[in-house]
Amino acid sequence: MDRIGQRWPAYSGLVPWALLAVGVLVDVVTVPEVSGGPLLVLACVAAGSIMTFRGTVRVVVVAFVLELLTGLRQGGPGDPREIVGMLYIVVAGAVALDLNRLLSRYGKRISEVRTVAESVQLALLPEPPLRLAGYDIAASYRAAQSEARIGGDLYAVHDTPWGLRVFIGDVRGKGMGAVSTVALLLGAFREAAEDLPTLEELGARLDRRLAREAPALGAELELEGFTTAVLAEFPHGGQEVRLLNFGHPGPYLVAHGRARALDAEVPNLPLGMAGLGQEVSPHQEFRFPPGSSLLFVTDGVTEARNPEGVFFDPARGLEGVSCSSAKATVNGLLTRVDAWTGGVSTDDRAVLAVAH
Fold first, then answer.
1. pLDDT of residue 1
2. CATH class for domain 125-355?
3. So where are the chain's domains?
């Protein structure tokens, strides 16, 4: 069932035919008490789940003819074993054709769901402008749930009177509650980023907004909902970046083939946990010279594992990655992560780069 809506590898179409060939070989080279009929039945069912409807029909017809010929060779017309074997093929063929029809129907439905989900994702997380406030920008989003292609990671960039502001976060949980939280936070950020002069005020506004709206987002988010996030500000014409961290993986400064994590000295609690009474810690400033890129990630990157279970280390994995543009930095990171994990993703993965 995991293959619904996906294409099988080209060579998989040979599997039913190989099963037919092995089944005939078993009937020919073994004693009459040993039958290759079960392999013919298996070939029919395999064809129904792998091949097209017409391809399945061909395999079922060939299996029926082969069962008839081998039955005639071994027992002659009217042999009970031949009759039973042919009935098996008829039943297996009917099951295979019905299975093929069901898989085709649900595959189309999943494709429709993916199309709708992609439209929702583009509405919530549109591609940022390639150039904004004098900075080069690129972003990528990959959801772990391939059927939905949307999850709880978020990012946004906005040019304000105080500089270019960046917001990246990771909502706890999945499903519609997480999507609703993403929409809430993005709307609040775009509104408040224009009005509030400091990152501390902006973070406090997002925290209060999430805490206030949590009851409307579902029981789980009301009790345990929070969002890790990083707010960044790039002053116009400056060579520094201001960072305010809310329990999120820090960004990585990539320059001259080296990468350095800009972790917070005193990270704040995640957004939505204002009720615990912690004051918002001051932002930190870091140098952001020309020719460098600042790469923001979610835990889908920092917690990506290789087959041995070892976590990916972006600081080491980004060594040698080009920072000539934001797009090059994002593509370089994703290529390294895919190589590390073998292309397997178990969590949403959002990446955003700002190049100077």
1. 42
2. alpha beta
3. 10-115, 125-355
